């Protein structure tokens, strides 16, 4: 064993797939790349996520309390990275990256047609936003593209490196 620099810990405790988070405020749509999120509860599904105060999406999410978490397949890797490397302050990311915004049913933020899962979310706990930029969101409506059942996801490994999920193994669950 060798020392692991603490700044690299996140590369090994990666919480899940890289996702796209959309917001809408006063008719302006935005999308950001996000990899810092985790499930908090199963029913209702609660997701905690970090949206930094410096992110253009932060103000819209804080004011509206609504967003969509869209899960892209690995085929969108270059788009996902491109979205993460520019700001909605400067560019219309939907136009630049050829994303198709679709109306959500319960929130004003748009779904992304190119993503195989879209989760409409409302903020239910904002107490940790000021201190940690952490929003706790309740998924209030979910969408899945049945034609893309086996889509593979991206997982951020740090410093421009990503892993693509692979083989799935199954074990008998004893959970009810």
TrEMBL record:
<feature type="domain" description="Flavin reductase like">
    <location>
        <begin position="12"/>
        <end position="163"/>
    </location>
</feature>
<comment type="similarity">
    <text>Belongs to the flavoredoxin family.</text>
</comment>
<dbReference type="GO" id="GO:0016646">
    <property type="term" value="F:oxidoreductase activity, acting on the CH-NH group of donors, NAD or NADP as acceptor"/>
</dbReference>
<dbReference type="Pfam" id="PF01613">
    <property type="entry name" value="Flavin_Reduct"/>
</dbReference>
<protein>
    <submittedName>
        <fullName>Flavin reductase domain protein, FMN-binding protein</fullName>
    </submittedName>
</protein>
<keyword id="KW-0285">Flavoprotein</keyword>
<dbReference type="InterPro" id="IPR012349">
    <property type="entry name" value="Split_barrel_FMN-bd"/>
</dbReference>
<dbReference type="InterPro" id="IPR052174">
    <property type="entry name" value="Flavoredoxin"/>
</dbReference>
<dbReference type="InterPro" id="IPR002563">
    <property type="entry name" value="Flavin_Rdtase-like_dom"/>
</dbReference>
<dbReference type="GO" id="GO:0010181">
    <property type="term" value="F:FMN binding"/>
</dbReference>
